Amino acid sequence: MRSTVAAIVTALACLLATTAQAAWNADWKHRARIGLNTSTEGAGTAEQADNVPVLVRLHTGNFPFVDAKPDGSDLRFIAADDKTPLKFHIEKFDGLNELALVWVQVPRLAPGNKDEHVWLYYGNANAPAAGEPRATYDVSQALVYHFGERDGQPQDSTANANHATRSTAKLGGAGLIGGSLVFDGMQELVLPATPSLKPGANGYTVSMWVKPAEAMSASLYAQSDLASGLRLSLRGGKFVAESGALAASSSAPAAIGAWQHVAVVVKEGLTLYVNGVESARASGAPVQLGGAGVVGKEFKGEIDELQVSTTARPSDWLRLAALSQGQEQKLVSYGAAEGGGDAESASYFKILLGAVTLDGWIVIGILAVMFIVSVYVMIAKALMVNAAARDNERFKTQFDQLFNSIAAHGEGQANEDKALAARFRRSSLYRLYASGAEELRHRFIAYAKSGREAVLTDASINAIRATVDARLVRETQGLNSQMVLLTICIAGGPFLGLLGTVVGVMITFAAIAAAGDVNVNSIAPGIAAALVATVAGLAVAIPALFGYNYLTSKISELTSDMHVFIDELVTRIAEQHSV
What we know:
The protein is an alpha+beta fold. Among the domains are: about 20-140 and about 330-340; about 140-310, Jelly Rolls (Sandwich), CATH 2.60.120. It contains ten helices and 22 strands. The strands form four sheets. Strands 7, 9, 10, 12, 17, 18, 19 and 21 form an eight-stranded antiparallel β-sheet that branches. It has a seven-stranded antiparallel β-sheet with strand order 8-11-20-13-14-15-16, with no helix packed on it. Helix 1 (about 1-15) packs across helix 5 (about 360-405) and helix 9 (about 485-515) packs antiparallel against helix 10. The two termini are about 70 Å apart.
């Protein structure tokens, strides 16, 4: 259905899509540029960051899901050199609702560079599934919980398999990134006490996204044994990191009901980060950690994307993580889709069609049917009224002769009428004449059989007029038949298009809200694609409006001619055959 409608719309618009050759592999039909802006206009990093897992959010506004496989198994991420495949994994790919979350490991992100990018390839129906969660993270990443499970225990996405030992919290929350873990103040999540979770010589990092439901004092993360421990908590409305005698408290209070990225780095003291920015620091002797981690004790709210690293992550690394995962998309941007030939840019028209959602295609499909119907009606009616006008003119030139040839008794009139009907078969005036002549002939035949004189009374004249008037009504109905289809197209086309646009805009904003991706590059394609439905509605209504006005003027002329002709015909019959 989609491909058929797309072909119709493309043909009507007379536009050909400009395409781009896939430099990495010609088996993939499409690619898109994923920008990574580390300049002051973007992430604003000061140092190089290595092996950063960047979250790529795909939705209706920035990705044509119709061109990819339904499960996203044909997605591939290639480095900026367009040669080197990158490690990635898909956390979520919902082709029906057009929403996807993909984690891509970027080996190196230089600071202050607005031209950093990777390539996203897709559009290969024969591509096998690729992407492995454990390969997306470096060896220092000890634990990653996406909380995308619907039941059971939270699962670790790294190669360490540090799956949760026990969790009483509820999975399936509407998280910032896919799902989240929901706490009610009486629940907790217990991590395993495995060797891979023990701090290394290079420090320790714990990070998570937190959405407090209310102001409270609660533990977000606690790891301790008999020797020492680490605690990240909410206290007095602020984030607090503690270990032994060391404590670091955030300068600003935690936002209630909003997602915030919180991280604590342990190395020669404690450093607390909020939303990728250092908020507090406590210097001191190296902290020794051990024991199992416990998350969310006495906490009310949601937690998403819990990560533990056995190294002290640099500040820019944490900043890039927070900016790529959060709703404020300063790091990641999405370029236009490319596909197919040798050019480097894609047609704007193809981009719009690629971004149209399923509901939009349904509306456009209905409008395409309406357009075809309106074109058919306009052509058929135009041919009919023009042919009727021509035959009427021909009939007028011979009307006097035909009228005078009506036999007084009409016995030989039937055969002549058949020949005239074939000759003037498109003339509405002839059919009016024929109905009056037929009525007149029947009366003459009846008068002849009864021996009456062939003279018409006033009642007979009125009866003949009634017969001709009845034929006039049928002729008018025939001329106006199917014109209601044009009025439906004129009135309904724009409203159907507007409906498609409104629903498309709603879906675009819903997808953006679900993906947490808020920037012009993500909004613009979806809004523009939604407006395609309005354009389609106007494309149906405007030609139908012009055609309707033309046809009504022609039909009005024919109707006026018929009214005048009836008066002339009845008057001449009365003049010639009445007393």
